[in-house]
Amino acid sequence: MKILRISAIVLAIVLCLSMFAGCGTKADYTSENKEYIIGFSGPLTGPAAVYGTAVKNAAQMAVDEINAAGGLNGINFKLVATDDTHDPTKVSTNYSSMLEAGMQVSLGTVTTAPGLEFTNLSVEDNVFFLTPSASGDDIPKYENGFQMCFADGNQGAVAADYVNENFAGQTIGIFYKSDDAYSKGIFEQFKENLDSSIKTVETVFTDTNDKDFTTQISTLKDCKFIFMPIYYTPASVFMTQAKDQIAADAIYYGCDGFDGIDSAEGFDISTIPQEVTMLSHFNSKSDDDKTVKFVSKYTEKFGTDTLNQFGASAYDCIYAIVDAMKAAIDAGKKIPVTISASDLCDILKDQFTDGFTFDGVTGEGIKWQDNGYVDKGAVKYVIKEANK
Known about the structure:
Elements: H1 2-22, E1 36-42, H2 49-68, E2 77-83, H3 91-100, E3 105-109, H4 112-125, E4 129-131, E5 145-147, H5 152-166, E6 171-177, H6 181-193, E7 199-205, H7 214-220, E8 225-228, H8 232-242, E9 251-254, E10 275-280, H9 289-302, H10 309-330, H11 341-352, E11 358-360, E12 363-368, E13 374-375, E14 379-384
Parallel strand pairs: 1-2, 1-3, 4-5, 6-7, 6-8, 8-9, 9-10
Antiparallel strand pairs: 10-14, 11-12, 12-13
Helix pairs in contact: 2-10, 5-6, 10-11
């Protein structure tokens, strides 16, 4: 009995020690990788699916091209796409599943609200991400995060520059979503950078009143320029309800949230008499060689319904990440296929903040600031001209 009792005590001690030994350690899901794994979370279903679908399509197209060209020193890449339906509460589960799939680097998320959750999760594991379109100012607030898109503050400031140059001394309208980080962030930076000679008429909406904009339209009906830093779904509702009340020669001016509005389900943009335009870093109608080739390949594979700057930006993200990995290897760094996400993050952080530049379909000479914000030129993109 005494021997059995001692044996039981020893076994219990061993079990306890093994449990404590495991505390604080994380599973290494990359140790069995046969390919480099790139993950992202985005709205592949739901009202914002046009964004997530574009990112998935274009990112996969880039991965396929890179693999067909020999990958990275003969090693292929694999894209792992997860659906968050633009819901931040789904990001944690998606993030865990991507880690378990061996994710070593990421495109983060497609939209801002889920992106803020991803930012907080990824910093704990030191996972490098370069988001194509999550534009919130706080998305890259930690050293592991970078943006290919303009940050909200940048969009607001650049939009203000355009308005300052073209509407000095005039009155403009502003329509934004006050309970949305994306919309409010752009609005605040826009107002901060707006010339003092320009007067504004402002009106807002929230999640609880995004179907009937009668009051907002009445407030803005005399404005000939309406700045709308919102997503295309409520924008299309507003335009439809306001088409006979807002002046036909008025201009609707949005940011990247307008991308895809001309192919939004149930919305016929041709019935809107006003000009619809947006601040962008991608012009699908450009005759630039890179743009022409991207548009041709994308539309051949996926049609035109999801051809937008979100996809173009994702395409650039994949190539920028791979180019940065190549540059690191050329500089003597080792990047085995089983490299941990944290080790790869340290390598990529150094690359992106040490003079690395990239030429893509969303700009040439693209580089990044130490805070993760992108430096590149912006273009004004006319989605639809005013009816004549």
